[in-house]
Description:
This protein has 1 helix and 7 strands; from the N terminus they run H-E-E-E-E-E-E-E. By secondary structure, it is mainly beta. The protein has a domain at 36-140: Immunoglobulin-like (Sandwich), CATH 2.60.40.10. Strands 4-3-6-7 form a 4-stranded antiparallel β-sheet, with no helix packed on it. A 3-stranded antiparallel β-sheet has the order 1-2-5, with no helix packed on it. It is elongated, with a radius of gyration of 28 Å.
Amino acid sequence: MIKHARMAVLLLICAALTYLGCGMKSHPQPPSAVRPQRIADLQAVSVSNGIRIRWSRPERYSGGARMRDLGKFEILRAIGGGPPQLLADIPVTDLQRFRQQRHFTYLDTDTEIGRRYRYQIISMTTDGYESLPSNQAEIVRTVPTPTPNPENFVLPTPVPLPQ
């Protein structure tokens, strides 16, 4: 009888320890609260060898908590009035670094002068939660104006003042 009582107490202690040490310590979050915040500052500019796009790193989930598991960016591009298509996957490789990259850029070299392009970015966490698509950056590729070259820069000829 004493042997059975000891066994029952031992089982109760094991069950209590299992319950106390079990998994989740916070309330479960809905998927819409753990997706990355939407990128709102996507910009595009024509450069000599293509179109450069730039955006800021999302630092919070859409639910407001600080994000620590950003995995990659998907860059979508639409040509003219066509539908957006996946252009590139940009992995985020600085998760373990003390100082993480705040801004990202991508150079799209597969463009033609005079064509219209629209870009959007989708952020993804390491476990696959996707943000809403970013703002749209629309641009017509042009030849950028050259910067002044000091070697062939000519100063205007001074005009004498009337006397």
